[in-house]
Amino acid sequence: MKIVRLSGGLGNQMFQFALYTALRKRFPEEPLRIDLHGFRGYRKHRGFELPKVFRVGYEAATLSEVASIAYPYPNYQTWRWLSRVLPPRKTMLQEKPDFTLEPDALTREGDVYYDGYWQHEEYFCDIRKDILALYRFPDFDDVQSQEAAQLAINSNSCAIHIRRGDYLKDPLRKGTTTLEYPLKAIRWMKEERKPDCWFVFSDDIPLTRECLKAVLPESQTYYVNWNQGERSIHDMHLMSLCQNHIIANSSFSWWGAWLSQLNNKTVVAPAVWMNRDNVCSPVPQKWVKIK
Q1: At what angle do helices 143-154 and 233-241 cross, to 10 degrees?
Q2: Are 242 and 159 in contact (CB under 8 A)?
Q3: Mind listing the pLDDT tens digit for each residue in 241-284?
Q4: pTM, whole model, 2 decimals?
Q5: CA–CA distance, 57 with 64 (Å, rounded to integer)
Q6: Which among 19, 48, 79, 173 is least buried, having the fewest CB atoms inside 10 angstroms?
């Protein structure tokens, strides 16, 4: 049996479920489960979001199934306390602290419990068509998003994601949320791709608008602030329809760019993903990195 632990917000869950999908392709005859117990008592995001926005099929592991190959943490708090002190069992594959690619993640035989974020496209890039079909966005259900989508498709558009909010207090992200990077990225994008339409996504629109008004033409810039809470999936959808992307160090806008099906898209990403030295970046080789 193989079990993939799911955790975090929507973007992280999409990475973990992409690994689950790749394993299902690689081991079609082997029992495969996802472990959802970590969402019990988890208050940082909106719980297990995947089935709320995508049509995903899966089997959830029972605690007894988890106990057969890993530690059966019944909730988030127990996992947070004990996972730091208990040594991993032989059947547990824990992602390294520097998030480097695990070369045998998709080939390890027998029972395996996968505990990590698995934020590398190498785990699933060879089944890209399957992932695109899996993460098919729901239709826009409001006029504002529908009009924005048409504009994004029919212009030389660029999506900009600036994430602050929870990152301001995250010890791994603190210091990476300054506006120096997006300003550099915008200048690069203007020079290289010359967008004529900009869509800005942020959890702090007032600050972002104030900081970007000097570099973005007001008549060609749209600050997307109408998709809140569970409707935020429409932001990712709009991102994916743009011709160009300036992403944040966020799995959310990573997926917004990766799910774009345009062959000539340009993606700019931050060279520094976290504020810790020697942390492996999930940015694909073909994307442009800017410090």
Answers
A1: 20
A2: yes
A3: 999 999 999 999 999 999 999 999 999 999 989 877 778 999 99
A4: 0.94
A5: 21
A6: 48
Under a CB-based contact definition with an 8 Å cutoff, are residues 280 and 98 in contact? yes
Render 80-144 in DSSP notation, one character per residue.
HHHTTTSPPPTTEEEPPTT----TTTTT--S-EEEES----GGGTGGGHHHHHHHTPPPPP-SHH
Whether residue 198 contacts residue 103, with contact meaning beta carbons closer than 8 Å, is answered with no
Q: Which CATH class is domain 142-289?
A: alpha beta
Locate the domains of the chain by residue range: 2-130, 142-289
Nearest to 12 by CA among 130, 141, 129, 166: 166
What SS3 state is found at 214?
Answer: coil
Element (H, E) at 19: helix 10-26
Give the residue among 6, 105, 99 at the shortest CA–CA distance from 60.
6
